[in-house]
Amino acid sequence: MEYYNVADIFGENVFNDATMRERLPKKTYQKLKETLALGRELDIETADVIAHEMKEWAIEKGATHFTHWFQPLTGATAEKHDSFISPPMKSGKVLMSFSGKELIKGEPDASSFPSGGLRATFEARGYTAWDCTSPAFVRQDAAGATLCIPTAFCSYTGEALDQKTPLLRSMEAINTQALRLIRLFGNTTSQRVVPSVGCEQEYFLIDREKFLERKDLVYTGRTLIGAMPPKGQEMDDHYFGAIRERIGAYMRDVNTELWKLGVSAKTQHNEVAPGQHELAPIYSEANVAVDHNQLIMETLKKVAYRHGLQCLLHEKPFAGVNGSGKHNNWSLVTDDGINLLEPGKKPHDNIQFILVLLCVIKAVDEHADLLRESAADFGNDQRLGGDEAPPSIISVYLGEQLQDVLNQLVRTGTATHSIKGEHLDTGVQTLPDFLKDATDRNRTSPFAFTGNKFEFRMVGSEDSVGEPNIVLNTIVAEAFSDACDRLEAAEDFETELHDLIKELAADHQRIVYNGDGYSDEWVQEAARRGLPNITNMLDAIPALTSVQSVALFEKFGVFTESELVARAEIEYEIYAKKSNIEAKTMIDIIRKQIIPSTIHYATRLADSVNRVRTAVPGADVSTQADMLTQVSALLRETKDGLNELEKLQQEGAAIHGDIVKRALFYRDSVIPAMNALRIPVDQLEMLVDKEMWPMPSYGDMIFEV
Ligand code: ADP
Ligand code: MG
After folding, report:
1. Distance 195 CA to ligand 1 centre (A)
2. Helices (H), ranges, 438-536
3. What is the pTM of this model?
4. Residue 120: inside a domain, yes or no?
5. Which protein residues touch ligand 1 with a CB less than 6 Å away?
6. Whose CA is nearest to atom 2 of ligand 1?
7. What is the tally of structural domains in the chain?
8. Same domain, 480 and 602
9. Which of 114, 318, 335, 680 has the CB geometry, 3.0–4.6 Å to 570, for a possible disulfide?
10. Which residues are within 8 A (CB) of 588 and not within 5 positions of it... i.e. 6 or more apart?
11. 681 and 622 together in one domain
């Protein structure tokens, strides 16, 4: 095995600040820095110089191609590769060239990406534009080495067709409003406030050969049938368990790849379900974190192939054990390193922190539906509200200490003390006593304050974290803006601040909940408090285009109304398409694999009855006969369920013109039929000879990696 020092390889494939400083002419470097600091556009001469150096550097890393790397609304990334080769010269040699124009702007044919009607297919033009705040990198793999340039993706008329454009807009919005706020508290030095994001990524690993035998996993990313093995996750022995060597070797390769790409992969451990793991990088600026999360997902999948493994990023690959999510840790940090969500030792005394905290609480309360929507995706419907993921109701967890501060504020408008962390006595002489955190963790809350950041836990493992961060940035920008409007106009700042804080605390305390988010009592309590409980993706989508959301996003220049309408349309489309694929996959598997195998088995039972009777007249064949009766009855149920599903799937596929109606039909008719069909099939799996069952079982997949 080859050992290396992380510091030697970290970022080696990134055209980062250090590389640019080293390689670019001083003047060019300075120009780029200025452009970045001021958020200006890059002039073409500077771009030409940067492009040239970038190309030279990339070629040294073996790059033959470059690509604008962007994030269309498919949830994944897209790229179109162009080689550096330019027309051969007379000598017959080729030149490797890359111009500033090619760096700054690309023009992929946009007609095959989802646009939700923003762009008719005949208007195929789409533009990609370099996001110089996220560094270019060289990706090396079996396909060779490629210079990847993170870019935004817009239509000919300037509408955003991607995740990055609105994310950058939302970062500007929150920067402007947060600066207003900290100025009011006497900060004159910070120049920028940036949302910092760290995403914990959960995933499953299974053997690739077994994966290929499961057509449901291949086509839909999740198992559509499958009986629970005798053991699930009830022993809690997988969580944080020792990492097996095969998995460890995989994680090592993943880390190496990510470190070279400048992704600061930091934490790795086994998760709750057997076969489930997690990877978390160190947090970074929101747009870089969103790009890095895409790189993490790509790398997890790619490296898995090399190890004969398959990485499953679906939110719920296996029913009955935990699904996967992505915890989105979010805070606001100034360019000079001040975290606005840092409470300090005495939170009650830190008035700026209290105001920031209350603004976040207000934002989440007023836009709970939008935040819920930002985590809605097709796979996440299988997970949210189950017993392991956060419930579908948005609430904020503050913990004992801040809850106590909040109570004081609601009562009097002033908080005079903070509960302190206590000494934890382990009862063992040789172990040091240590100071407990003032706040315990609550894993059941969808939006939890965790020390100096908020952790949004609803996001699905396969989804882009772009949207949740766009929403968070914008709704908090609005709350800051409202607060600043009042405070800037106040005659007496202190009095106005006091009143504002008391009001915010009283008006929005209903969204705060520190109890068990999985309990039924909470569902009832939340209803009493008037909090929305949006249980599925289709009920979540309308929040995107509500009057309130349109006003919010337009006010801060993050989305236009037509962009929002387009996004909603795309989500309905995705829902209808994905559920149609699932239904067709299930039909295919059951018709061509499950029913034939079961018939073979039933026939063998029947043969056995006859053959045993022939061999030993009067022998007891009641076991075979019993089994045959049971299997035949379930086979009948399966076939009936299959007929029903086929009928409904065809009915759904025939709905044209009204995408909402079509999606709703799948949710209300097709998916329930799939769930019903699964029941007899899973019972059959428990009866049919394992040798004859046509695909690996849950146990084979999650315990035998
Ligand atoms: P926990 O174990 O409480 O979930 P960790 O310290 O392991 O928290 O961090 C989880 C993720 O949160 C990591 O990606 C980490 O870098 C990120 N994170 C830590 N502090 C912050 C912060 N101030 N802002 C944003 N993300 C943060
Ligand atoms: Mg966490």
Report:
1. 13
2. 466-489, 493-508, 520-529
3. 0.94
4. yes
5. 196-198, 200, 267, 280-283, 329-331, 339, 450, 452-453
6. 450
7. 3
8. no
9. 114
10. 215
11. yes
Domain of residue 273, residue span? 171-419+452-559
DSSP class of residue 92? S
- Average pLDDT of adjacent 10-residue blocks, the chain of 705 residues: 86 94 94 81 89 95 93 85 80 82 80 72 70 91 91 84 94 97 96 96 96 98 94 74 85 95 91 90 96 96 96 96 94 97 89 96 98 96 79 92 90 86 57 57 85 95 96 98 98 95 95 89 94 95 98 97 95 96 98 98 96 95 96 98 98 96 98 98 97 97 88
Ligand 1: atom nearest CA of 450 is 3
Distance of CA 451 from the midpoint of ligand 1 (Å): 9
Distance 292 CA to ligand 1 centre (A): 15
Q: What is the best residue among 271, 284, 329 to mutate for testing ligand 1's pocket, by most ligand atoms within 8 Å of CB?
A: 329
Calculate how far, in angstroms, residue 205's C-alpha sits from the geometric centre of ligand 1. Answer: 24
Q: Smallest Cα–Cα separation from 624: which of 602, 597, 598?
A: 602
CB atoms within 10 A of CB 153: 24
Same domain, 158 and 187: no
Question: Are 506 and 633 found together in one domain?
Answer: no
Say if residues 150 and 139 touch (Cβ distance below 8 Å): no
The rounded distance, in Å, linking the Cα atoms of 540 and 59 is 47
Q: Is residue 510 part of a domain?
A: yes
Q: What is the rounded distance in angstroms from the CA atom of residue 587 to the CA atom of residue 581?
A: 10
